[in-house]
What does this fold into?
Amino acid sequence: NKFAQYWKLVFGEFFLYFFISMSNFMYISFAISRLSLIGNDHSKLVKFFSDTSVLKLTLLFVFLSTGLSVIKPLMYKINEKTYHPDQPILFYKENNFQAINKSILILKLTFNIIYDILNYCLFVLVNLVIDLIMLRKVRRVMLENEAKMADQIKSTREKLRKENQSSFRDLIKFVILNSLVNISLKIPRCITSLNDLRVMLLRFHEVYTTTTNILSQNTNSLLYSMKYICAMEKSCELFQSFGHFLYISSLSLIFFFFF
It folds into this structure.
């Protein structure tokens, strides 16, 4: 059933990763813009995101997400075989491996891995860095406000200091909770992506020196580490889908934390 295969490629691969990338870019933009509300001394990057209209940023992120996500359906081809008729297969599942351009093969595999690491690992680190920058800016603004109150009576200064300390402790708790939830839900996909990179680097030599091993696996739809750690393909697909579910849930919870 070719329709079912095209449906999976368009909606199960392209749009799934497109919306994940869009969510990541939009949250990063929101988090950076939020820094502009703290104090008056802002970097050029913060000013860019805070001054640029939402429409322009959205169009930019649509362009970036589309360009990055297009690699996902390109990793597959329509299955003309009788087995798994509704399941597209990896693009290098050719009858004659020698006919495949190995440079194109390596390029696609590399770009796919870079994209996964960007989506599932790098954005997690960027979110954490932005939160740490926010804490630093908030603390600096609080100290500046306390310094401005130096000419006030001691009781007023002490009250402000206690309020600042209490607010800062609450902010730290919030950042820790947000980071723990964020990392906990995203770590399954992050670990898989990093392991994919490890496996791919180990297999590069085999790709160039043999026509068996990595490219003669019976697995039709799973990439890299999923093929090597699972005895049953369906269990791998379930684990992969569950990882996607957790990751998408984390994106929803991020916006819930801030609204």
Observations:
- The CA atoms of residues 66 and 97 lie 30 Å apart.
- The longest helix spans residues 154-209.
- The beta strands are 76-77, 89-90.
